Fold Molybdopterin synthase catalytic subunit.
Amino acid sequence: MDKKKPKKVFVKGAIPPEKIATSIANHQSKTNIGAHSIFLGQIRADEIDGKKVSAIDYSAYEEMAENVFHEIREAAFSKFDMTCCHIYHSLGQVKIGEICLFVFTSSAHRKIAIEACNYLVEEIKAKVPIFGKEIFEDETHQWKVNK
């Protein structure tokens, strides 16, 4: 089996809605695809100890994280009969209401696209070394804990 080159996952700042729309539009010519599944992670205005989150500042050891993303992506391709799989994650500050994670899977059938997308999101949350600093409205911060 050929060793695939890892795809670039990280985006500086929020993932713009235009990037999502363009990704969808770029797949219209792939007529063997019958279904897409999309997960969009958005920054919530959580309230913690009486303080409201205004943004999350994401950081990572990029090369290490990119390798983990690659391993997860390849595992998904061997587990599910997908046609396409795209993953983008923010680095740097992302404000409440903005998108920080975009996972887009395509397959001939909906069940596979949906299951693959869910698998990818759960694996990313569990395994990728990305750190989020929750920035509060008063400009104090704390490190995010994934639940």
The two ends are 36 Å apart (CA to CA). The first helix runs from residue 17 to 26. Residues 68 and 123 are 10 Å apart (CA to CA).
